[in-house]
Structure to design on (384 residues):
DNA sequence: ATGAATCGTTCACTTAAGTTAAGAAATGGC
DNA sequence: GCCATTTCTTAACTTAAGTGAACGATTCAT
């Protein structure tokens, strides 16, 4: 498990044994059951999540309806906006599956950052990379139709379509569950 | 003009006179004419832009059609994804109006970062804040209809609706110019 | 100032998503 | 295993966006 983390980190900076030990000693590995709510609307939090195994999602509850806006799977990280903005959360975070997560908090990060400036560089690079990824995702979303977005998802994250409930996928694609169901039926028609 | 920049920076870190001078000496203030293309599809670039005055936009050309995905106005910064990923750009960046821009490049930033660690902290905080802002924007986009998105834009960036051509606004809202035109007519009907 | 190109609106028509409702299928708890 | 709940699909109908085309209005270049 630890190796997975350090392999990931090594893409950004190289750590000494001392630095690795400092991270391990923080005791941030957690097993979390499917359905667990990690963050609720209205709550304040300092926690960030890194998914080692499993899948978590963020969702809003608008007019009593869940609107799923993001999924995070293996090797993906989520720092909720409420953590960055220091405001109550506008959305929920919960586990789509049983998960092994790395859960850190702002204070721990600040401590590590001051001890190891290298770590701050990593965080900056990581934030910038995420910013670029998210920008591309947003642009693709804006410039394509629901059908194209679904096909795009099948290409890029085929696992998601399998492991996540349809109605959650639907709002992730910006449409209603019925529309996703119909859209899929339409695509099957076309193929044959 | 310099004061505008330093007021902005002071939201993240406090700079000494020495540090301010180091920044000014980089000679990064530029006037750019409306219509100027700052970055073309396929180009590699190391340049980032901070808008002191005016408006710039990013757009793709897909099937010969321009798809505008973002606008940056006063006090907003753009680091194109191609700069972060070190890949050829997938989109264009151009000036919607005459602009006064602060144009920096990766090498300059690296130099300043190593001289003043404080600067790297600022970049990290800034990237994180942008990440949170963009996440919220994306979530709002996903969870709302074109009409809601337009009304939302009227609330949050009323200036954009005035200063930017309709057909650019339309793709920014994820629809066709005709649809935006119709949507606006529909809203006027409703009001009366 | 004038002609050319671009831009915004309107219209008729097509296509697809939203809505409401019903029922089948899958899942979870006991 | 069985019931209750949730999830997925289907269908009929409504609403709004996409498409193609036409026509002023505006902008731009010379």
């Amino acid at each position: 498990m630890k190796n997975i983390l350090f392999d990931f980190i090594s893409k950004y900076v190289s750590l000494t044994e001392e630095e690795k030990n400092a991270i391990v000693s923080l005791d941030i590995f957690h097993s979390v059951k499917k359905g667990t709510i990690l963050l609720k609307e209205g709550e304040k939090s300092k926690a960030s999540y890194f998914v080692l195994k499993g899948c978590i999602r963020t969702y809003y509850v608008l007019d009593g309806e869940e609107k799923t806006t993001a999924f995070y799977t293996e090797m993906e990280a989520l720092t909720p906006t409420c953590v960055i903005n220091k405001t109550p959360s506008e959305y929920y975070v919960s586990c789509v599956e049983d998960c092994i997560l790395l859960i850190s908090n702002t204070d721990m990060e600040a401590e590590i950052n001051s001890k190891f400036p290298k770590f701050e560089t990593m965080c900056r690079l990581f934030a910038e990379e995420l910013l670029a990824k998210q920008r591309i995702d947003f642009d693709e979303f804006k410039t394509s139709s629901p059908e194209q977005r679904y096909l795009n998802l099948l290409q890029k994250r085929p696992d998601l379509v399998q492991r996540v409930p349809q109605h959650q996928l639907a709002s992730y694609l910006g449409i209603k569950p019925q529309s996703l169901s119909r859209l899929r039926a339409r695509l099957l028609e076309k193929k044959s």
Strands of chain A lie at 29-32, 37-39, 47-53, 55-62, 65-73, 77-78, 92-95, 99-105. DSSP finds nine helices and eight strands in chain A. Chain A has a mean pLDDT of 94. Residues 117-142 of chain A form the longest helix (26 residues).
